[in-house]
Amino acid sequence: MKIRQGFVSNSSSSSFIVSKDKVIDWKELIKELEKLEDKLKEQGKQSWGDNGETFEVQNDYISVETHYCYEAYEVLDKQVIDLEDNSYLIED
Questions:
Q1: pLDDT of 23
Q2: Domain that residue 68 falls in
Q3: Phi, psi of 74, deg, nearest 5
Q4: What's the predicted TM-score (pTM) here?
Q5: What secondary structure, in 3-state letters, does the chain show?
Q6: 78 pLDDT higher than 80
Q7: d(CA 3, CA 87)
Q8: What percent of the chain has pLDDT over 90?
Q9: Number of domains in the chain
Q10: Which of the residues 10, 19, 22, 55 has the least number of beta carbons within 10 Å of its own beta carbon?
Q11: Packed helices 70-79 and 26-42: angle between N→C axes, nearest 10 degrees
Q12: What CA dihedral angle connects 78, 30, 61 and 25, to 10 degrees?
C-alpha cells in the first residue's frame, strides 16, 4: 500500500482521508456523500469503491473511496480546501 500526501491523477484505486479543519462545510460534505450513496443504492449498488466502501466519518476525519465514482471526487473537490494539498491519498 502506498500513502501519498496530495493528489495523484493516474491512480487505479484511490481513497482520500481528509481532516475536518480542511473542509469548507463539514455537514454539507457528509450530506452530499449520503445523497450520492442513496442514489447508488437506488441503482442497486451497495458501494462505489473497489473495496466495498463509500465513505466513513471518524472523529475529525473522513475517508472517501473515489474509485468507480468520479462524482465522489467532485464532492470532495467542491468541499475541501485545496484538496490536492490537504488530503492523503491511499493507493492499493
A1: 93
A2: 2-91
A3: -60, -40
A4: 0.76
A5: CEEEECCCCCCCCCEEEEEHHHECCHHHHHHHHHHHHHHHHHCCCCCCCCCCCCEEEECCEEEEECCCCHHHHHHHHHHECCCCCCCEEEEC
A6: yes
A7: 11
A8: 27
A9: 1
A10: 10
A11: 170
A12: 50
The model's pLDDT over 37-70, given as tens digits with 9 standing for 90+, comes to 999 889 888 777 767 788 999 989 998 888 778 8
Vertex 46 angle, CA 77 and 38, to 5°: 60
Query: Is pLDDT of 29 > 80?
Result: yes
Q: What is the distance between the alpha carbons of residues 62 and 64, in angstroms, rounded to a whole number?
A: 6
The amino acid occupying position 29 is L
- Joined together, the cell numbers standing for residue 71 give 462524482
Return d(Cα 51, Cα 44) in angstroms, integer: 17
Please determine, for residue 8, whether its predicted confidence score (pLDDT) is greater than 80.
Answer: no
What does the chain come to in residues? 92
